[in-house]
Design a protein that fits this description.
Elements lengths: L6 E3 L7 H4 L16 E9 L12 H11 L3 E9 L10 H9 L2 E10 L9 E9 L3 E11 L10 E13 L2 E9 L7 H20 L5 E7 L16 E3 L17 E6 L3 E10 L8 E7 L2
Parallel strand pairs: 1-12, 2-3, 8-9
Antiparallel strand pairs: 2-13, 3-5, 4-5, 6-7, 7-8, 9-11, 10-11, 12-13
Length: 288
């Protein structure tokens, strides 16, 4: 069943989407010498657990994420004990437990607790993975803080990277959320930071480096500030917009992969109102 150039309705109640998007039978068998390795990935801005109706409903998001049947998921706008809007819950940890996945959370903001003895209030991005997380790092990007009344662009954390071992192959996965403002200047700096970090990873390893960038870029594919990314990365074009979820007109959510080491087999946008964005899911082949 081809996923390209159409949306996929999240038929959770009927239990149909898991079958429709299930990996091919060859995915469950070990690859032979020289064979490519299949991997399904997704990206989803979860809007701190709230749907298009503004209601916090993590059960709804768990169902939408489970229906994607992805091996690796990049998440944006993830609250960890942040506030009342998400019931002070650890969304990264809870989603991982309920989906039976490993998790790496990369906070953008870490603020003092609301009361003495309580955990820090954190907000950021996360990677969920069915595969073992070998290492994790929270890199800095240029940011314009939403917590400062008079912000200036400055390095700040929140560009999450994990290294996974996928059937013996190391894979670098990055989760990001670029600046939302109409002025693209901060996004220009963030793209430059992203390319520098990814280039350092390529230079530091022997042999081919498989890289997957997942995120909400807050800009359409043809935006000039994103153009440098496409020099090294392939955009997994899903053929449909992702935002706003209720009646989407823009594609600002991305799966992008290294050109020489990862091939895009298929991609789609999943139709769900569990957030104000729609998720993108892509079937990839990792080259040996």
């Amino acid at each position: 069943m081809s996923l390209r150039r159409r949306t996929v309705e999240v038929l959770v109640a009927a239990g149909l989407l898991g079958a429709a998007l299930a990996p091919p039978a060859t995915a469950s068998t070990g690859p032979g010498p020289g064979a490519s390795v299949p991997l399904r990935v997704a990206t989803y801005n979860i809007h701190a657990g709230a749907g298009t109706d503004g209601v916090f409903d993590l059960d709804r998001q768990v169902a939408a994420l489970r229906a994607l049947d992805a091996d690796v998921i990049g998440l944006q706008e993830v609250d960890v004990h942040w506030g009342a809007r998400s019931e002070w819950r650890d969304l990264a940890g809870e989603l991982a437990r309920r989906l039976g996945m490993r998790v790496s959370f990369a906070p953008i903001y870490s603020l003092a607790p609301a009361a003495e003895g309580e955990p820090e209030r954190e907000f950021g991005v996360a990677v969920l993975s069915r595969y073992r997380i070998v290492s994790a790092e929270n890199h800095e990007l240029t940011r314009l803080s939403t917590q400062d009344p008079n912000p200036v662009p400055a390095p700040a954390p929140g560009f999450g990277e994990v290294v996974l071992k996928v059937r013996g192959l190391p894979v670098h996965v990055y989760a990001t959320h670029l600046d939302y403002r109409g002025d693209p200047s901060v996004r220009i700096a963030q793209v430059a930071d992203t390319r520098r970090i990814m280039a350092e990873d390529r230079e530091s390893e022997r042999g081919p480096v498989r890289q997957i960038l997942l995120g909400d870029f807050n800009a359409p594919p043809a935006a000039p500030e994103l153009a440098p990314l496409w020099r090294e990365l392939t955009d997994a074009e899903p053929g449909a917009p992702t935002y706003p979820a209720l009646d989407p007109v823009l594609r600002i959510d991305y799966v992008a992969v290294s050109k020489d080491t990862v091939r895009v087999r298929d991609a789609a946008v999943a139709e769900t109102l569990a957030s104000d964005h729609r998720p993108v899911v892509a079937d990839l082949s990792l080259r040996r």
